[in-house]
Specification:
Layout lengths: L8 H15 L70 E2 L2 H6 L10 E4 L3 E7 L7 E2 L3 E5 L25 H11 L2 E7 L13 E16 L5 E9 L29 E5 L6 E4 L4 E4 L35 H10 L12 E3 L5 E3 H7 L6 E6 L2 E7 L22 H64 L19
Parallel strand pairs: 3-6
Antiparallel strand pairs: 1-7, 2-3, 4-5, 5-8, 6-7, 7-8, 7-9, 10-11, 12-13, 14-15
Helix pairs in contact: 1-6
Pathway: Protein modification; protein ubiquitination
Pfam family, one: zf-RING_UBOX
Catalytic activity: S-ubiquitinyl-[E2 ubiquitin-conjugating enzyme]-L-cysteine + [acceptor protein]-L-lysine = [E2 ubiquitin-conjugating enzyme]-L-cysteine + N(6)-ubiquitinyl-[acceptor protein]-L-lysine
Length: 485
């Protein structure tokens, strides 16, 4: 395919159709609409869309989420919450980027270092060396909260501290986890150059920690910062040790800066995540907090998870002519209908995802061979493209929904609908003007008929008066005239 590239006829037709609609004036004044992409339709890796202002991962959209946990899930991610590999997220798992870490549920926010809600608790943190006050000792570390830096304008980061931190938002979420004893997932990042326990590259999941104390103290840059003492309490050994068992309960280290600290918070009740002496492991000693995220109904995204500001819903179905035109340009080669969840093969043909999967249902790309009781090498099954003789077996597992083509089809359908709506409105206006003219002419005709009927009634009255036989005539009385001298 690389030596003999093919022209994508579908995109050529789409460009031609867009030019025709633009020249006809359809879609003028209509706002741009971005369609929500369901999780099952997202690619396996982060991707960029037409909304991206710049290139790179900073403007990329998250790929498919592989875990079934909500965003406010506390504690480890077990095998029952990870249907892809059926093993969960294990200590030592690494990811190449923050978006990839998000896909596996390690840390959901793509930018902020603390994942949590101030009235619910914190679920995870990332150690990336953002503050010079941080101290990393492996099994325990001192973590600095967020805030205190000027991020006005379009700033994403700022290393200069300009005001005091307070126990608000994410900082309050960590303090609530300290009071309740909730487990906290910790991910270390290779950007932390001051830590000896950071990975060489990417991000690494280092297990469950627990916030033991928190306080406020004057930091290196002269402003107060929120400080947290976090202690490891995981059933799996740390990635930097050769131990074969997990953590055992250990005493808290002595922290010198507590002598001059303020707003010290310590846990007064028994922790929710603690070591069970009977079972010899760390587990939930109290029921974990319930998720506050709204569940999705029928696969629809919740209102909080939608990041599309402008979105319209088709209120009227497309006209038959418009649908046939779109079906001709963007039709599936199997069902001959408008492409739904389109996938583009290596040979340049477009199919509905469900249609293409249904054609090869129950078939694998490889098959076993046996001869005389011996197992031979696997043989590749030929999966012929429904539209051409090319084999799809090599790229079968790389087929993903073509997001650009899907958005293009939705845009074309929307413009056709706007064009048909404008045409219907114009037709209705013309019909209403004709109705007004007909009404006015009918009113004038009715008025003329009434006038003519009144004239006829007046003439008939005169004729009836002349036909009276007896008419009584009375003599007129002489008028009294004023005497003048």
């Amino acid at each position: 395919m690389a030596n003999q590239p093919r022209i994508n006829l579908t995109l050529v037709s789409a460009i031609r159709m867009a030019k025709m609609l633009k020249s006809s004036g359809a879609g003028e004044g209509s706002s741009q609409v971005y369609e929500y992409v369901h999780n099952q339709d997202r690619p396996d890796k982060a991707y960029t869309t037409e909304r991206a202002k710049r290139k790179g991962m900073a403007n990329a959209a998250s790929g498919r989420i592989f875990v079934t946990i909500p965003a406010d899930h506390f504690g480890p991610i077990l095998a029952e919450n990870e249907p892809v590999r059926n093993r969960g997220v294990l200590v030592g798992d690494t990811w190449g980027s923050r978006l990839e870490c998000r896909q596996w549920g390690g840390h959901f926010p793509p930018i902020t270092g603390i994942a949590g809600q101030q009235n619910h608790g914190a679920q995870s943190v990332i150690l990336s060396g953002g503050y010079k006050d941080d101290e990393d000792h492996g099994e325990w570390f001192l973590y600095t909260g967020s805030g205190g830096r000027d991020l006005s304008g379009n700033k994403r980061t700022n290393k200069i501290q300009s005001f005091d931190q307070e126990f608000k938002s994410a900082n309050e979420a960590l303090r609530l986890s300290c009071r309740k004893g909730y487990p906290l997932r910790v991910i270390r990042c290779a950007k932390d150059k001051h830590s000896s326990y950071a990975p060489v590259k990417g991000l690494r999941y280092d297990g469950i920690y627990r916030v033991e104390k928190c306080w406020r103290n004057v930091g290196v840059q002269g402003f107060k910062v929120c400080r947290y003492l976090m202690l490891r309490c995981d059933n799996a050994p740390a990635p930097w040790t050769s131990d074969v068992h997990g953590d055992c309960p250990r005493p808290l280290p002595a922290i010198k800066e507590l002598e001059r600290a303020s707003d010290i918070t310590e846990r007064k009740e028994s922790p929710s995540w603690d070591f069970d002496e009977a079972d010899g492991c760390w587990k939930w000693m109290k029921p974990p907090p319930m998720s506050r995220k709204k569940e999705k109904k029928n696969g629809e995204p919740s209102a909080a998870s939608r990041k599309i500001v402008r979105r319209t819903v088709n209120k009227k179905p497309l006209s038959e002519a418009a649908r046939k035109r779109i079906q001709k340009e963007f039709g599936c080669k199997i069902c001959s209908d408008v492409l739904y969840q389109p996938v583009t093969t290596a040979c340049g043909h477009n199919f509905c995802k469900l249609c293409l999967v249904g054609v090869f249902a129950g078939r694998s790309t490889l098959r076993e061979r046996n001869a005389g009781g011996r197992n031979l090498r696997f043989k590749k099954n030929v999966m012929k493209c429904p539209a051409c003789p090319n084999d799809l077996a090599d790229d079968w597992y790389d087929l993903e929904v073509n997001i650009e083509l899907k958005n293009l089809i939705a845009k074309q359908m929307r413009e056709c609908e706007n064009f048909s709506s404008a045409f219907e409105k114009r037709t209705m206006d013309e019909d209403s003007s004709e109705d007004c003219e007909n009404f006015s002419s009918a009113f004038e005709k009715r008025t003329m008929d009434e006038d003519s009927s009144e004239d006829l009634s007046g003439n008939s009255d005169n004729e009836e008066g002349s036909e009276d036989d007896e008419v009584e005539l009375k003599p007129e009385k002489p008028s009294k005239q004023r005497k003048t001298n």
